[in-house]
Amino acid sequence: MSDVVKGVPTDEKEHRNFIENIIADDLKSSKHDGWVITRFPPEPNGYLHIGHAKSICLNFGLANDNKKAKCHLRFDDTNPLKESTEYVDSIKKDVEWLGYKWDELHFTSDYFEKLHGFAIELIEKGLAFVDSQSADEIAAQRGSFEKPGTNSPFRERSVAENLELFNKMKAGEFAEGEHVLRAKIDMASSYMCMRDPVLYRIRKVHHHRTGDDWCIYPMYDFAHGLSDSIEGITHSLCTLEFQDNRALYDWFVENVSSPSTPRQIEFARLNLDYTVMSKRKLLQLVEEKHVDGWDDPRMPTISGVRRRGYPAAGIRNFMNMVGVGKQNTVIELSILEECVRDHLNKTTKRCMGVIEPLKVTITNWDREDLAIDAPFHPQDESYGTRKITLGKEIYIERSDFLEDPPSPKKWFRLGPERSVRLRYGCVITCEEFVKNEAGEVIELKCKYYEDSFNGQQPAALEKKVKGIIHWVNAKEAKDVEVRLYDRLFKHENPGGLKDYLSEINPDSLNIVNAKVEPFLAEASGGDQFQFERMGYFTVDEKFFGEGKLVYNKTVALKDSWKKSK
Ligand code: ATP
Ligand code: MG
């Protein structure tokens, strides 16, 4: 958590985006007394996804950068039907894991009393009324972009009558849907959101924090801006789809005795290719069991990518790289993977793990097993070394042998009469291969060269041996479960499809039994390694907690997806 560095104050540095420009101007003019107070306002109706991480990095980042600055975590819990404490807890955990600390923790439900007071105030000013029409009737009167809406027949109720009805709504005297409270603004406004929006509706449901105290609940638009105002938020950052709602946001703040005047600023949301990024769709994937829970390592949720092994710093770097703008774009998932790879390259030990093992017998190996000191990091001695042994029987990667390989100029690995070097070991030449009844190669018989250790070219071979492959000693190798992941969706833009479920990649999870160096069987949940030539792998924390060792492939060493496209 403590790895977030305090940044340079916004007014003292080159600005990275238009929001920093606005804040720098505000700091110069001492607007808000030089304060920058932001908030991250999730609705606790699902787990956070990578898109939310953009908003988290932006809001908390601004608070970290500036001296007189705070960032609140506020749960916008106005819709009790879909919310739960499970979601609240997961969101807190994710924000902390990303490396941020909220200065204040709030719940919109803590403001229910105040918000109710603001509603009464609007009624008293003649700016709100109780409508007794059904939701369908109200919708039918809304009009369209071309056509103004129609006033409700209840719009001219007296203040006294409105107050009485609203009180009865609150007291639970009406059924759900019988009445709503609406603002009285302008049914002809070019902003649809200004056409007498609903402020309160009756919902006789239990709320995860306020229990059965309330049976009327405020609508998001009404509650959101006024909660910002109650908290003294200076810059209320939200995504572009709220642009039109800004008029309403400002109207609420202006028309009640709100304690402060926050400014809403919209920025483009993060979209990733091959990814769906809406809580509703992610919930569907979970509920219909297309994935194994919100934290399935294939999910674009923060809990999913954490389990998969994405480091928080890699995600923060990615957000820095994509920046904050006003144009909706789709970012390649490969760029996020590159940031993950970049970070893991600096932080992981190297080791050898054979994902798809093929047995090799070194026929002329008539000596004791050889102990080798292998470095954990080829470029950084501080990582130290570990002992590995080489013996008569080893496993190599199945894909490092081809029965009928291309020319030696193109193929540097094994084939009949072809030679390679074993990493940290000697050179071997394949003299024979054994097949089973199904015609699969199940074993190679190779010879080794005594004079080829320590990188020496064996005297018996004319051509220089170029290829180096990884391997493990069969005698000491441990079996571990490895989970290989591919994109969850085959389609580049699954979120844009009606039937996005049909684009789920059936091969997104592949469970294999790998042969690895012995120390890898002693690793703990969350430990990360580079399996040389194969990628970065992370011990699954959840399975580890259940007493099972599973390695998740976090990311490949190279972007193979792009090439295959
Ligand atoms: P979804 O659209 O996935 O259902 P949401 O916007 O309904 O998400 P909230 O809990 O309301 O989810 O979001 C909390 C905050 O995160 C909001 O300020 C919202 O603008 C921001 N946010 C959500 N998705 C993204 C995204 N893809 N990129 C950037 N910010 C996002
Ligand atoms: Mg939302």
What hetero molecules are bound to the protein chains? Answer: adenosine-5'-triphosphate, magnesium ion
Helix residue percentage: 25-40%
Q: Any low-confidence stretches, pLDDT <50, length ≥5? A: none
CATH topology value of the domain at 117-218: Glutamyl-tRNA Synthetase, domain 3
The gyration radius over C-alpha positions equals 31 Å
Question: Quick check: average pLDDT?
Answer: 96
* Oligomeric nature of the chains: single chain
Number of helices: 14
Shape: elongated
Q: Under the CATH scheme, which architecture of the domain at 117-218 would be assigned?
A: Alpha-Beta Complex
Strand order of the largest sheet: 12-25-26-27-23-24-13
Question: Which structural class do the helices and strands define?
Answer: alpha/beta
Largest beta-sheet characterization: 7 strands, mixed
At the fourth level of CATH, the homologous superfamily of the domain at 117-218 is Glutamyl-tRNA Synthetase, Domain 3
